[in-house]
Amino acid sequence: MELTTTLSAQTVRNAVREAGINANYWYAVGWAKELLPGAVMSITVWKQAIALYRDGQGQVQALEDACPHRGVALHKGQVKGCHLVCPYHGWEFNPEGQCVNIPYLSDQQKLPTAKARSYPVQEKYGILWVFPGNPNLATQIPIIEIPEYGRPDLLMIPITGHFKAHFSICNENALDVFHGFLHQGLQGWFDPELAQLKETPGGLHAIYNVSYKGRMAKFLGLSDRADTVTTVPISIDYRYPNYATALEGVSSLYLMRLPVDAQESRSFALFFFKVNLPQGLLNLLRPVLLRVLPRFVLYRFLAQDVEMMESEQQNYTANPHRIYAEINPAIIALQRVTLKQYESYLTSQETAPQTTKGQNQR
User: Fold this and answer.
1) Taking the C-alpha atoms of 280, 284, 286 and 289 in order, what is their torsion angle to the nearest 10 degrees?
2) Which of 78, 189, 224, 233 has the fewest CB atoms nearer than 10 Å to its CB?
């Protein structure tokens, strides 16, 4: 559905800063390479503490990070074959969360029916994904497609973000191309124009026309000269809960959002750059570019964004009743999507069978 691109003042819906997530999606929770065989990782998906571990067969498993015996954090335990062992009394749980062994019980004694909630988990694109909602829906909901992944002609750079801010604030930053003003000292974009805005099933599609100038524009292949202004379209697809952004023929970005709690979010992003170099030279320079670009370019942009998002959260926390004005219709549309997704999840919880509802609320 086409939406207006006219910039006009509207009141921000502060309720979006209190919204929870639609848990019936796959959420990126970490980089796969950081979870070594036999290791356990603690993650949180919207107030749900989860222990991820890589079992003896190299498979990733996910259990509620609380032993059903005494509530001790299971991520403090150890991996034994395909099982996770609680550090307190040695209770052992299989990937389904069932207690399969208690070291101080005899073989003749019956094990308690204690069970830790298990979560669907996947490893794809070098990322660990968890489905925190109704596990019966996990096979029906796809993970975002990243067709650029694995292409040797592209430079792929992973970037991790950590924000002390509600996920709605972070998501609005990703859709708000008008904040190029913030990055002007880093040769960011300027003179943005919202050219198209559409509401899509479960998300939004926006196209901005933006201008570039300087050494960065020349490096990206936007212009043959650093002193020339080039105007190009940037497309942004918000596919709840993630983003796919493209600067055609130059770069693309896939940004996976992890809502931690009401005032904390994380992100796992994959940047793909089309570098104007012969394939052999690109392969030779790839290790250097993978070190230099994040440190001296990407993380510098991110640091400026983090400061703004955390400032926004701090002021909202101090006065959640303050009235804010917004003129970008894409931001207002995004707030509608965020609230609609949360309301949809709450409705699904009300209509879910009691057993499934209990699983999701544990």
Assistant:
1) -120
2) 224
End-to-end CA distance of the chain: 38
Residues 89/158, Cβ–Cβ less than 8 Å:
no
Q: What residues does 101 pair with on adjacent strands?
A: 92
Q: How confident is the model at residue 95 (pLDDT cuts 50, 70, 90)?
A: very high
CA distance 79 to 36: 11
Mean pLDDT is highest, among 238-242, 281-285, 325-329, for: 238-242
Domains of the chain: 36-130 (2.102.10.10), 155-340 (3.90.380.10)
Report if pTM > 0.90.
Answer: yes
User: Which pLDDT band, with edges at 50, 70 and 90, does 224 fall under?
Assistant: low
Q: How many whole angstroms separate alpha carbon 161 and alpha carbon 181?
A: 21
SS3 179: helix
Mean pLDDT of 257-264: 98
Is residue 92 within 8 Å of residue 138, measured between CB atoms?
A: no
pLDDT tens digits along 123-139: 999 999 999 999 999 99
Q: 231-252 burial string, b = 16+ CB within 10 Å, else e?
A: ebebbbbbbbbbbbbbbeebbb
Nearest residue to 5 (alpha-carbon basis) of 337, 334, 330 = 330
Residues 305, 182: contact at Cβ < 8 Å?
yes
Place of tokens 């059903």: 68
- Backbone angles phi and psi of 191, in degrees to 5: 50, 50
